[in-house]
Amino acid sequence: MSEKRPTIYDVARVAGVSRSLVSLVLRGSDKVSDASREAVETAIAELGYRPSRAASELASGRTETIAVLIDDYANTWFVDLLRGLEGELARDGYRVSVVDTAGATDTEALRRSVDALLSLRADAIVVARDLPPSLTGRTLTTAVAPPLVVAGTRLDMPEGVDGVANDDAAGARLVAEHLLALGHRRIGHLAVAGGAGAARRASFVAAVAAGGGEVIVVEHDGAATEAEGRAAALGLLRAHPELTAVFGANDLMAIGVLGAARELGIRVPEQLSVAGYDSTEIAASGVIDLTTVDDRSYDMGVEVGRMVRDLVGGRPAAGERRVLEPTLIPRGTTGPARRL
Amino acid sequence: MSEKRPTIYDVARVAGVSRSLVSLVLRGSDKVSDASREAVETAIAELGYRPSRAASELASGRTETIAVLIDDYANTWFVDLLRGLEGELARDGYRVSVVDTAGATDTEALRRSVDALLSLRADAIVVARDLPPSLTGRTLTTAVAPPLVVAGTRLDMPEGVDGVANDDAAGARLVAEHLLALGHRRIGHLAVAGGAGAARRASFVAAVAAGGGEVIVVEHDGAATEAEGRAAALGLLRAHPELTAVFGANDLMAIGVLGAARELGIRVPEQLSVAGYDSTEIAASGVIDLTTVDDRSYDMGVEVGRMVRDLVGGRPAAGERRVLEPTLIPRGTTGPARRL
């Protein structure tokens, strides 16, 4: 750290232009000739100059970073959330950084992940997973922590925290109605832990029952991965050959069901219909083509971004909860129930 | 920020224990009774106390965060890299945070992503994508930036920067030899931009030619996504019905080929063999079951972690390049070439 940090004056000198012209280039002005812009950019690269963001951060106490806590990088439902958040906040100059908790198997490990999140000194924190109340609670919302927005349906949300979620109960009901309309009455469900999982399960079971059907629920407390979905589905389909459809609590679990069906020689959708939740990119791939629920992750990200802007701007947290309506995306993995 | 930050003494007072007992709990000691631990944890939650990491960071100038720059959260090859990095550095107390560049379509946008990375004030930076020399170069390696390690085969790596990669040329050769041994001679390749993509393509084309075959290469400059792979494969398979195999430059592109084949009514592997690269979790799913190359991402993460430890510990950057041997993972998407 002993080398002198280059300044905007150094850049101007090396580029042979005025300091104000360097400033214009840094602000992305279109009033700069290509030649001057190039000279400035070359000088910036040569000097290793970094625009004064760091200095202004030190002065303002802002990092212009939004830190997002997610479950697991391998479960890509969060990607659209980030895209929406980035899209909404790009013009404010915010950048987004992510910390995951896939390796955190107990509260202490989760606390370390939350520490990692806080150590980023972000201007706001977005929590997109369930957390024990001791962590979502005062640890995050105390005066030493930045503003917090919760994304998704989460258990034990402390009062006063703002959040955006899709209506998981409504989404699961859409799946139930879709399967009932196709004639399915004996349906499996791979449930997952957490607020979204609980809402989906309760609503799905109730809606299928209201339509005269019955749901066999497999509880699952661990990570909601493809491998777990596959293992759970193998057990379920072997024990319940009467099932004509399975609803996985998220796309990864549902993709696991597709793998299990293939392993057991069960054709999808002729012999078994399969649906997921989240509308991930991989679910839309031609080879998977999974019926799923669009949980409006992108729009959720946009709404989270608006809340972040308000909170950073000084609006006190108000416990506002915005809810987005999900939609069903019927694809090739669901079809009419086979005759038993 | 006006509220007084709670201290370890406040925690001890509220929990009704000594300060040194709080300290033991914070260090995870097993010499503390469950009752005391619970009292301390309750007090920590109530007060919103955060262990003195932030304070010690301010004193030491360290954040104990490693910041990783990746291409795109949706391309999950990086997940194993992070797991290896986290595994290696967990005992040092480091945490990992990620910034992606999927939205960065020009150098200026990339520069903003690099700014985001630098603004995390991480103790070290890991770059796991290609960057223009002006960004990987002095912008990152100047004295104001933290130590840098490059992960993966990257173009234009500045001299003196340390890095770890798998041997992409060797990996592509393994795919070529596998397909040649299965009798394939007319093979398509969906290439991607960047250092790893270039190495894979050149080696694949040479190895197939050496075995008496021929490769039709489709160049692709954009994002290496499933959708792009599918679109490219649709064009390729329509224009070249004589192809009996396609090698996608990564798993996502290869999954796109599987989707294209399905759309065209081409059976895999009976009529078309498909291979990818990266050994992602989704490629291993039962429903995709993709032949791929294990690029040793987890081990790469471990090696990156070791380099990070050395560099943070004071070893000067030495331009060291460690190379890991990839292995082929044959699965259900490759089989004997059909007779034409």
TrEMBL record, chains A, B:
Keyword Ribosomal protein: no
HTH lacI-type domain span: 6-60
UniProt cross-references to InterPro entries, sorted A to Z: HTH_LacI, LacI/GalR-like_sensor, Lambda_DNA-bd_dom_sf, Peripla_BP_I
Key words, A-Z: DNA-binding, Transcription, Transcription regulation
Annotated SMART domains: HTH_LACI (SM00354)
GO MF entries: DNA-binding transcription factor activity; transcription cis-regulatory region binding
Pfam families per UniProt: LacI, Peripla_BP_3
Record protein name field: DNA-binding LacI/PurR family transcriptional regulator
Organism: Schumannella luteola
